[in-house]
Structure prediction request, 211 residues.
Amino acid sequence: MSITRLFDNNRHWRAHKTAQDPTFFSRLARGQAPAYLWIGCSDSRVPANDILGLEPGELFVHRNIANLVVADDANLCAVITYAVAALRVRDVLVVGHYGCGGVRAALGGPSGLEAVDAWLRPVTDLHAANRAELDAIADPEARVDRLCELNVAQQVANVAAHPAVQDAWAEGRTLNLHGLIYGLADGQLHDLGCTRTGAAEAPRASAAQRG
Ligand code: CO
Prediction:
C-alpha cells in the first residue's frame, strides 16, 4: 500500500495553513506554549486536537491504549514531568472514551496478545475492585461504558499522585486535573466531575506514596 496519499494530504494541509496565516509555521518553529496536556486513548477515532478544536501548538499529547496512567511508565512519567515542570500547562485532561476496546478487552479476559494483556492489567484490577457495581449492570455495553468512566476517574487520581503534580501544587501553582469521556457515537465530550485543583483533594495514599 502506497503512502502517496499522505504526502498529497500534507501538501494540501501546508498550503491551506499558509494561506490562512503566512506566519503559521515560522511562529510554531520558534517554540510551543500549550496550556493543556491531553492523556488519551490511542484509538484512531479519538483525535485529540480535532475533538477540542485546537491548533498545532495548543495541546501537549500523550496517548496509550485505554488512557492509563501507570506510576512506573517512564514514557508517561517524562511527558507529565515535562508538561507540568517545563511547559507549565494549567490543565491536564485525562480523556477516556465510551466503547473503549482496551477496557472491553480487560473485561473479556485474556486476548492472547501478551503485551496488550500485561498493559491492560490495571483495568483488570479496576474491574475486580468494582465487581459488585459492574456485575449489577445487565447490558454488556453499558458495563463497558461504566468501566470506561471508572477508569478515567482512577487515572485522574494517578495523575494527582505524580511527583511533578504534587510539586506544582506544593508551590501553589494553578494546575487542574480533569476527567473527561468522549462519545464515539455522537462526538460529544463529557466532564465526569472528578476535577482536582490541589493537593488537599488528592487521596491520602498518594501523599504517602511520595514518602
Ligand atoms: Co480506547
Remarks:
- The two ends are 52 Å apart (CA to CA).
- The chain has two domains: 1-31, 32-191.
